[in-house]
Fold these 2 entries.
Entry 1:
Amino acid sequence: MESLGVLLLHPMNAYLEQELDRRCRLHRFWEAPPGAPRDEFLRAHAGSIRAVVGNASYGADAALIDALPALEIVASFSVGIDRVDLAKCRERGIRVTNTPDVLTDDVADLAVGLAIAVLRRIPQADRYVRAGQWKAKGDYALTTRLSGKRVAILGLGRIGLAVAKRAEAFGCSISYHSRSEKPFPNYKFYANVVDLAANCDALIVACSLNAETYHIVNRDVINALGPEGVLINIGRGAHVDEPELVSALVEKRLGGAGVDVYENEPFAPEQLFGLDNVVLVPHVGSDTEETCRAMADLVLANLVAHASNKQIVTPVI
Amino acid sequence: MGTAAGEPPFHPAVLFIRRPGAPFANAMLQRFHVLDSLASGEPLAAFLAAAAAMPDPPRAAVIMGGGVIHADVAFLDAVPSICCLVSTAAGVNHIDLAECARRGVGVANSGTDYSVDVADHAVGMLVDVLRCVSAAERFVRRGLWPVQEDYALGSTLRGKRVGIIGLGNIGSLLAKRLEAFGCIIHYNSRRPKDSVPHKYFPDVHDLASESDVLVVACALNKETHHIVGKDVLEALGTDGIVINIGRGASIDEVELVRALKEGRIAGAGLDVFENEPAVPSDLLSMDNVVLTPHSAVFTLESRSDLCEHLICNLEAFFSGEPLLTPALP
């Protein structure tokens, strides 16, 4: 692997970066900002870059792929690969890998943790205590129970199923929408997302982002979820029409939201910062020491396999 | 309760000893003559004396928890007509059960009404502490995400050994939920529970040394006062987390704060404190703790269940029937 030229698109994990540096010929893309420095960098190194490592926010788009004539593999430090131009990769015969399974539990844990946080207002109650309001104003307001609520899941893949399993432990009923019905008779399938939203208390976005699922949570879905309903997004920001989400929350047409992903990261909508019925976290779905380590090892394993002409571990294409 | 035709319905007098903002009064007013401890603005002693001096003094009292009053010998002496106490909490540590038993005063608690909400809240706090939810929230709301890029990594739940002190209603519901997150359940209680597959530890110190998370979910009594102290915290270790959804006094709060300050444990989720609503000021600036104002019980659903339950216990008493959820010493 020592001769493998790897382009790391952005700092993402210290251990991964160290290992790539130690075991390959590592180039750090952010050290060549757009303009003259980047042109110079590409002139000097494009011909030797055979691998790109990106993540949920930084991927190999068409322009980058075109600029790297020797590119053979794109390994993403993420399970979602919506930032990778798959069509272009197929055209060029470039392999693409991601990091499924190792992060499933963490993302599902956060989804349910966010649901509890929003319904039970844990971060808000914490703020209340830190601001001295418990002494000054007495008990915090009543919140609403999670157990027994109707939970709807958009996308019943690995993460969606893991969310369902956790929600079931709280006595929640499970409904879902996906491209086709799945063999889970205990989970109610809805072919229509608006119907799904109208018949649940909490809607959790857990599908992959593609042309069909862009803005799948739109004004109609948000209105169907309603003033008692709660939206939890642990998918991609672009799954949700963010301006519609913001206005629904501000106007109280939507009961609450737990958000881990945004249309324009790292910018979360400031209009939400003053609201008490939202919980906003900065894309931390898989951000634990254990999982990031496992994701990094999987990226490395994929690169090693490719470099030694062995079977790639977690190919997308 | 049947009444003769034409007479007003019989509304037995009930003492209601409460904190400001308590909501049960409306439901009780429909069926009982409620003597509200806060209505007159008088100090409690005067209020009790006035109630005792009534021509038909109250035989039942509803008592809120949370330090409003201690229903002890002095209280029972002040209103000797009382033969039934109903606590609005599952906890009855504010009631002298032994003294009540001696006097034949029946005591009822809230039963399991709260349990599911407390269990849910405990899971929420555990995820919050391990995954830094509240802390990361502050990071976003302060506008730091665009400036500092990433928030620090948290710790995964899968495989964490959770030691639950007290495997009653709340502890059992909590165990069921955490298993779905891949946690391994260990427990301590007065006696092992045969029907339960989890590993039992007769000693809390041993439980702590084989746990990554220690959850206090037990009732407060003589044996459980400060059951989590310096030794137990040391056994839990520097990666350990403490969650308290029982009573503040089950943990030596001074030692806990010291351990957090000195990094001898990794974090804590606390819903209860030794001197509510006072919270040790050192905790208020810590990012590795989550603090909630004894709100694990406070949902619309449990409030409505609790109201109904309270009324049912009172009606049972006044009809000469057994209390629904007696609390025994």
Note: Residues 300-318 of chain B form the longest helix (19 residues).
Entry 2:
Amino acid sequence: MACNSGYCKSGCHGVGDEDEDKRPATLNGEPSNRAPPGDGDSEPSTDCNARCFKCKVNETISPSYPTIAGGGDFGRFCIDCFRGNLFGKFRFAVTSNAMILPSDNLLVAFSGGASSRVALEFVHKMQQKAQKNFDASRDRSLPVFGVGVAFIDERASFAFPSNDFDRAINEMSLIVSSLAPPAKQFHVVPTEIIFSPNCASGRAKLTEIITAIDDVTGKADFLEYLRMLSLQKIAMENGYTKLVLGTCTSRIACHVLEATVKGQGFSLAADIQYADARWKIPVVLPLRDCLSEELNMICSLDCLKTVEASRQPLSGINGLISAFVKLLQEENPSRESTIVRTAGKLTPFCFNTVPEVDDHKVQLASQRRHKKYNLKLNESLPPESFCIICRSPLMKSDVTALNGFVDAGPITEILLSTCSSCQYQILPKDPSSLEYFHSLLPQSMTSPVKNNYDNKKCLREQIQDFLLSD
Amino acid sequence: MAAEVTLETKPKGGRFCSICTTRRAALKRPKTLEQICRECFYAVFEDEIHRVIVGNNLFKPGERIAIGASGGKDSTVLAYVMSELNCRHGYGLDLFLLSVDEGITGYRDDSLETVKRNEVQYGLPLKVVSYKELYGWTMDEIVKLIGLKNNCTFCGVFRRQALDRGAALLNVDKLVTGHNADDIAETVLLNILRGDIARLSRCTSIITGEDGPIPRCKPFKYTYEKEIVMYAYFKRLDYFSTECIYSPNAYRGFAREFIKDLERIRPRAILDIIKSGEDFRISTSTKMPEQGNCEKCGYISSQKWCKACVLLDGLNRGLPKMGIGRTRGLDNECNKDTRQNNGTKSLQSKQCGTLDF
């Protein structure tokens, strides 16, 4: 029980802390020279002529932006190397996970915030490059992937929506149109669309179900699940093949703690990988390795316009955790990365990989370019069921525990199809309201579209070695 | 006289207990926010612990069990409840109190007085093991030498071994400690924050160290700290409640504050954290430290020497920083040490005593 008091002043390291000091190597293979966190002996960078530790030529960002001198690794880069490093992280995530194929039509979820703005910018950059290559190539064998942008208009779900919504949407529209060529379609869709094509009745249903949820955190989480359903709907109806989210390290760190605190330790690994193929349109997270601080910095450096559209302040448990992580990050700038790295050691699920495409030509061509990262996946059987509300894989033992439950027909059905966290914070407490609440849920929750990962394929992969004939 | 109050009407002071509906509700249960009377609180509190003990097969009849007793609220309530349940449900256990004297004047000597009173009050034989006897150093002396920087490291490492050695001296089969739900939730969080995947996979186990000298169990794994305090308060149990005088602003404080705030919003979150910890599936490909034995004393260790021997060596040689922070390359100092261990516990020489298990 080496050091269970954690953080004695002088960087007392137990076995586990050794991990912290091994920062991932930068992309050119250079190990980070950064002193171990919390080490009281590291000298502060007071050198006004500090050189970029990568190119050793230009001045670091810190002198020009003194507020970030202490924070994060990027204070040691010059502006160009910082930009290169950040884009490099994005590109590495994309190529090593085969996230973007030439035949893809990507839908980028855009909230107006810094993370999704950068996701949009980087995807656009990549598309521009692909377009240039296409124009220059002789055989034109590989098409250029398409990109569309989506914004979910959630004002109907807020108690006190801001008046600036329409102005914000206009600004976003301008941003999207400035990212051309190639031109990108901008979809603005209200949440209520998943309840009904008729906006008024959809809004009524949305309001009714939101008010039926008492728990503040439950309400916020439920809206997030609706947001995903809305994005999926846009993607499916407009022929998109992948959904790109700007989820960054910092956001994932918060999610890790949120899931832990809500008893979702089993399903946590499903939400934090580079790819999530639980959905009909697989979801990819190319900014998974970037800190929100870095994304804010690049927006500031490159004057990428962001829009403060819609986000309501975080409340309840999510708000508490956000404040907690902020505090930890201030005390130690590598904390968010450590949290995500720890959670990264949890076993992912078999759907946490970008599904392969059947097009032989495209596969060959992409194999030439990409080296697929070998994600160590869960070797056991794919989960049999998912929670209808949050889509988290259900633990078999949670399901069987209900078998002793006095059969009340539809109520048992509902309980069998939801996770314990959603049962607690979203579903109504008393059984008499339960059935009615279930009837209010959008159809895409109660009768979900078959997801993309092939159950049979998963099973086959496991017995592959023992099959004698094809 | 006025007519008896019927069950339907509210009593003057408030509502009725939601469990027995006969007595007046005296408290709100921190875990569930139910309003219940004192007797029902004792009953649910004790019953839940009984179920945990039975449901997890913590003990077998005839076993000798040492209760880690610091004199604080957790161990006092633990000793009280264990004797109660042992009697009431016929566990058939031989219970002992085991206390560790770290040698902290003004703190430990006071709490030890409490444990001595517990020995009398609960009728459980007490054994005290001291750092001075075992290692030749008290915490006061250690702090004088190293200051307030890494003292918790020393104390924690030494205490763990001290408990094991005391348990061996008492010839017990198991050790029980008063770690409660709040402690375990804090530890889960801390291990996530610090990247300690190896500990994360072990820290929610209710029984640990089954492959070591003495298995330890935590019957309070699902018991809320607030409820332990409440129980001790209502039962007027004798305990000592002060923070260790050497405790710095440990990192654990961050996690503790957070959990307190969390409990206010959603009391069941503490149990949810523990559930998450139990449900985490950790890749088998993850490198875990290999378990071996200390070359010097035989205690279990993942390194050549166990942490206690490393620290002690440092202390005895006036190199208090040894064993703190990362070691780079082989620990050359260990190899150079040729001092003989004469196997006796000598106060003057301050050598590491024998740890024959």
Note: The mean pLDDT of chain A is 81.
